[in-house]
Design goal:
The chain folds into three domains: 1-169, Rossmann fold, CATH 3.40.50.10070; 309-372, Immunoglobulin-like (Sandwich), CATH 2.60.40; 379-494, Tetratricopeptide repeat domain (Serine Threonine Protein Phosphatase 5, Tetratricopeptide repeat, Alpha Horseshoe). Strands 1, 2, 3, 4, 5 and 6 form a six-stranded mixed sheet that branches. It has a five-stranded mixed sheet with strand order 8-7-9-10-11, with helices on both faces. The longest helix is centred in the middle third of the chain and has 19 residues, at 289-307. It is built from 18 helices and 18 strands. It is of the alpha/beta class and 497 residues long. Helix 2 runs parallel beside helix 5 (141-155), helix 12 runs antiparallel to helix 13 (393-407) and helix 16 (451-464) packs antiparallel against helix 17 (468-481).
């Protein structure tokens, strides 16, 4: 079957926004060729026919300044190449401005059991959110397109667009990824792809959630190849969606049996990778797929708005690593979608004390947390060094311990651990405590420059305790991990390796 995705997002931006419209503005539109979703539609070529119908309907409306499909063919091809990484996005963006297009209508057609399922979605080409959606299922392509044309003419005005774009500007974002065929009968029926498109349209018709048009997503293209190869479990779409600012991914599976069609679905938070909502339902015939999609769209939107909110986290200094409930969430400043409730936040930056706090996320709201991180003071280390010079070991240990308690989560604490272990092992002969210091340093600070010295100190401590075999094991580890360090050279001489 020959299918082609015509509309693909350039690598420029998914930041929600776009130019505000008023009821007096003329909307600068173009209509792209519609995608034929299954063999029945592909063989009859009705996608192009449907696009022509919609284009003619919009041409007669006073609301639109329309670019004909033929005038944007090169632009659409450039979008495809840019998304595939084969062309720079700069010239593509310039071409869009030259064409004076602010919105693009994309769509699809499927033929299921003699019934046409036609969907048309209008998107803001600055951010690819769906700002108008219309779809229907009939036994006549002309009837379906006429219905969509009338609906578009009535509801797609400057005033309505301005209202819709304002409504979704700060709303949670979602995109439909895919619905897979979970048994041979589903593959033969060819309804999984059309259902994903129908659900995409029904979500886009809602006003309290920002839906990112799915046909632009590179992951969709990758998924087609993955499905053909039989590998669908290992896709990287969740991360792909997340880095592009799409907070939720909707996916599912369809099974077809002699008397029922079963649909399983789940909503995944792309930041955490966790499923925040899932469900399973059954219908009797393909005719019931659109009513089902309409119900699921409302259910998914309600779940997202009820169970998630937005968190904005800033730090001073900026660029700190942010950990939410112990998991790395990225660098500040950071805006992300979280499940409702209280979350612990920790920020880490080089040469600064960790910043900690809590943030309470409310449904559909934006919560803000600002963390100020103080620069780490070297005063305690300097005082400890001074006590060492005076051979006041207990006072030096106390200062090092005070530094550790205050800055333990900073890389700077590794030096305090090392000096403390050295004093305990070399001067005070408190070997058990020295072992604890060196092992803590090695385990807690994997990137510390003092790890080689810690291995050597640990080996010396075990030798002093009479545990020669253990000491030699530690030395061999030192040689393996740090073959070029001065500590390794000392250990080879001292332990005669």
């Amino acid at each position: 079957m020959r299918t082609k995705i015509y509309i693909i997002l350039t690598a420029c931006s998914l930041a929600l926004g776009g130019a505000a419209l008023t009821q007096h503005d003329t909307i600068r539109f173009a209509v792209a060729p519609f995608e034929n979703l299954n063999a029945g539609a592909d063989e009859s070529g009705i996608g192009s026919e449907a696009a022509r119908h919609i284009e003619q309907s919009m041409s007669a409306s006073p609301h639109f300044a329309l670019r004909k499909g033929g005038e944007i063919a090169a632009f659409l091809e450039s979008l495809t190449l840019a998304q595939a990484g084969l062309r720079d996005t700069g010239p593509v963006d310039a071409a869009g401005k030259h064409l004076k297009i602010t919105h693009l209508t994309v769509g699809s057609v499927a033929l299921i059991g003699g019934r046409y399922e036609v969907d048309a979605r209008s998107v803001n080409i600055e951010n690819w959110t769906i700002i108008h959606s219309s779809g229907c299922g009939t036994y006549s392509i002309d009837s379906a397109c006429s219905h969509i044309g009338r609906d578009t003419d009535i509801t797609l005005t400057g005033e309505n667009l301005a209202s819709r774009e304002a409504a979704v500007k700060d709303s949670p974002t979602i995109s439909v990824f895919r619905f897979g065929d979970s048994n041979p009968a589903a593959y033969e029926a060819g309804i999984s792809g059309p259902f994903a498109e129908i659900l995409n349209s029904e979500l886009g018709a809602l006003g309290d959630i920002a839906v990112i048009e799915r046909t632009h997503l590179k992951s969709v293209i990758n998924e087609k190849a993955l499905e053909m190869a039989g590998v669908i479990e290992n896709d990287n779409s969740t991360g792909y969606f997340n880095v592009r600012g799409i907070a939720h991914k909707l996916e599912g599976e369809i099974r077809v049996f002699s008397d029922i069609i079963s649909v399983g679905y789940r909503v995944i938070n792309t930041g955490s990778g966790k499923t925040i909502h899932s469900g399973y339902t059954e219908v009797g015939t393909p005719d019931a797929l659109r009513p089902l999609a309409r119900r699921l769209a409302r259910e998914v939107a309600d779940a997202i708005n009820r169970r998630t909110g937005t968190a904005t986290i800033t730090t001073n200094p900026s660029g700190a690593e942010i950990f939410i409930d112990g998991e790395n969430a990225g660098k500040s400043p950071l805006t992300l979608t979280l499940t409702t409730g209280r979350h612990t936040v920790k920020a880490a930056a080089a040469e600064h004390e960790p910043g900690t706090g809590e943030i309470e996320v409310l449904p559909g709201k934006t919560a803000a947390l600002a963390l100020r991180m103080e620069r780490i003071s070297q005063r305690l280390l300097q005082e400890a060094f001074a006590f060492e010079q005076k051979s006041d070991w207990e006072a030096a240990l106390a200062k090092y311990q005070e530094f550790i308690e205050r800055y333990e989560e900073s890389e700077f604490a590794n030096m305090a651990y090392y000096r403390k272990g050295h004093i305990l092992q070399f001067y005070l002969k408190r070997h058990d405590e020295a072992v604890t210091c060196f092992e803590t340093l090695i385990g807690r600070y994997p990137d510390a420059m003092t790890r080689a010295e810690a291995y050597l100190g640990l080996a010396r401590t075990y030798r002093s305790m009479g545990r020669e075999e253990r000491a030699l094991t530690i030395v061999r580890t030192l040689v393996e991990k740090f073959p070029d360090s001065l500590s390794t050279e000392e250990a080879k001489i001292e332990f005669r390796l």
